[in-house]
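One-letter codes give the sequence; each number marks local geometry. A record appears below:


***
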Amino acid sequence: MAAKKKAKTYKGKSTRLGGGGRFKKVVDALKKKGKSTKSARAIAAAAGRRKYGSRKMASMAKAGKTRAAKKRRKK
């Protein structure tokens, strides 16, 4: 039986769709180009909405917030 592959991560976030790693990677790349954190996040969100649609982006954001809240409760 093949072992299950572990998802790649970026700064602790999964790079699978909805894991937050892809978004963080884009934000960091934009910040390196001189954008502020706020504008980098806005640009990344706009690109995500263009690619996935507003409904899918909203559901991924909700899932991320739920995961973060769960993590906070455990500590």
Summary: The mean pLDDT is 90. DSSP finds three helices and two strands in the chain. Strands lie at 9-10, 13-14. The first strand starts at residue 9 and ends at 10.
